[in-house]
Amino acid sequence: MTKSQRPPYSVRQIGLAGLGAMALAMVSLPTISTAETISGLTPAKIQPSADHLKPGLAVQYYGAQFNHITELIQWMDYKDGWSGDPIPMLNYQVGAGNVLTTSSNDMVGADITGLINFERSGSYTIMVQSNDGVRLNIGGKMIYEDPDVHGDRFSDEITLEISEPGWYPVRVLYFEKKNTSTLELYWDPPGPQEIDYVPAEAFGHIRK
C-alpha cells in the first residue's frame, strides 16, 4: 500500500507529542475520531469448516443509476441482478476503471455477502473508504453507512468489540454512479499491528 492509499493517521498512532507538529500537515485530511464502539455482534450460527468455504466474498450486481443506498435496495426488490466473480478483498480504489469485479465503469450496484473471520476476541478498529454510497453490516448489526453520492471519503474510526472469535456474516451494499469508484475496508486487530486492509484470508463465502 502506498502512502497516498493509507487511511489518515489516528491520534493513538501519532502520539500526543506529535500532534502539534503535524497539525498543519493534516489540515487537508478528514478529522478522525473514535466515533463509537459497537458490541453484541453475532457470529455465524454454524461455523464453516475450511472445505465448505470459498475464498473472497460473493457478489450480485445491478446495472442502474443510483443516488442513494435506499434506491439500490428498492431496485433489488423487483429487479434480478447477475452473479459476478467473487471479490477477493475490499481494496478497490480504481479511479475511472471497472467497478469491483465487473467490466463496467459506471452505474453499478453491488450486494456483497459472505463471512469475515475475527481470529481472536478483543477490540478491532475498522475504517471504510467509499465512493459512492455504502452500507456495511457485520454480525447482524449495521456498522457504518455513507449512503449517497460522494467522492472518496473515509469513515471515522469504529471499534468493534468481538467477544467470541470465529466467522461472522458480513454484507456490504455499495453503488458507483459515475466517474471514479472506491470501496476499501481497513482494520487494526488486537495486538501490535497497524491499521491496514482486511486481508484476503479473512474473507470467505459458503460453497454452493
What attributes does this structure have?
seven-stranded mixed beta sheet, 3 helices, single chain, 15 strands, mainly beta, Jelly Rolls, 208 residues, eight-stranded antiparallel beta sheet
Short description:
The chain is mainly β. It is built from three helices and 15 strands. It has one domain: Jelly Rolls (Sandwich), CATH 2.60.120.1560.
Number of strands: 15
* Chain-averaged pLDDT: 87
Order of helices and strands: HHEEEHEEEEEEEEEEEE
Helical residue percent band: 10-25%
Structure description:
The chain is mainly beta and 208 residues long. It has a single domain, classed as Jelly Rolls (Sandwich), CATH 2.60.120. Helix content is 10%, strand content 41%. The chain is built from 3 helices and 15 strands. The strands form 2 sheets. Strands 2, 3, 4, 6, 8, 9, 12 and 15 form an 8-stranded antiparallel β-sheet that branches. Strands 1, 5, 7, 10, 11, 13 and 14 form a 7-stranded mixed β-sheet that branches. A hairpin with a 7-residue loop joins β13 and β14. The longest helix has 10 residues. It is globular. About 12% of the residues have low confidence.
Write the layout of secondary structure elements.
Elements: H1 11-14, H2 16-22, E1 34-38, E2 53-55, E3 58-63, H3 69-78, E4 82-83, E5 91-95, E6 108-118, E7 122-131, E8 134-138, E9 141-146, E10 153-154, E11 157-162, E12 166-176, E13 181-188, E14 196-197, E15 203-206
Parallel strand pairs: 1-11
Antiparallel strand pairs: 2-15, 3-4, 3-6, 5-13, 6-12, 6-15, 7-10, 7-11, 7-13, 8-9, 8-12, 13-14
